[in-house]
Write a structure and sequence with these properties.
Blueprint: E1 5-10, H1 25-39, E2 44-49, H2 57-60, H3 67-91, E3 96-100, E4 109-110, H4 113-121, E5 125-129, H5 139-149, E6 154-159, E7 164-165, E8 177-178, E9 180-182, H6 183-189, H7 196-204, E10 209-213, H8 219-225, E11 231-234
Parallel strand pairs: 1-2, 1-6, 2-5, 3-4, 3-5, 6-10, 9-11
Antiparallel strand pairs: 7-8, 10-11
Helix pairs in contact: 1-3, 1-8, 5-7
Length: 235
Amino acid sequence: MKYKRILLKLSGEALMGGQKYGIDPNMLKQYAQEIKLVADQGVQVAIVIGGGNIFRGIQAESSGIDRVQGDYMGMLATLINGMALQGALENAGMFTRLMSGLKLEQVCESFIRRRAIRHLEKGRLVIFGAGTGNPYFTTDSAASLRAIEIEADVVLKGTRVDGIYTADPEKDPTAIKYEEISFQEVFDKGLNVMDMTAFTLCKENNLPIVVFDMNKPGNLYNLLKGDKVGTLVSI
């Protein structure tokens, strides 16, 4: 396989499936099967999942909730998603560990870098919940930070779109897809890949990012096999 250790970033919204909010069991099952395909090939898989299907901290301000309080609520939402994904992965026959940036000892382990790496080396899938454990940081930033800490080979950002385009392909039919692009070009063209903190972390640590469509069956496996899937961002 092309990469030995990956950090897979999934959006919380993707878990909604066709629903307006919450978790669609069919999407959980589909993701578990896709991840199992690559884990069975010996790829070490770490996962960060967002919480936007349940709660977004940044939206809390409009409802009168303090931004910091809202961000902590969002972190708890990522843990709910992490627990749901953990259940789906274990139902598919995999061994997992859920690690949190916040202390919740009855539910999951606290994040300890060496322990996370050890879990991966033993073939366990590791899900990182509660973001970085700090307000004002997105789950994109958590994905970049955890990927660097565990010495992942790549950040795979699973979205609804099959890569990075010159414009939003859902709004502009003339948008052209990039097969590969450099970090500097993304900056220069003002393309929206991740939030700036997350993106800069990857750039400064020479950690490549692949943006791809996670909802297309077999895409994750084909990407790791070396096929041209999504858009590669690198130095």
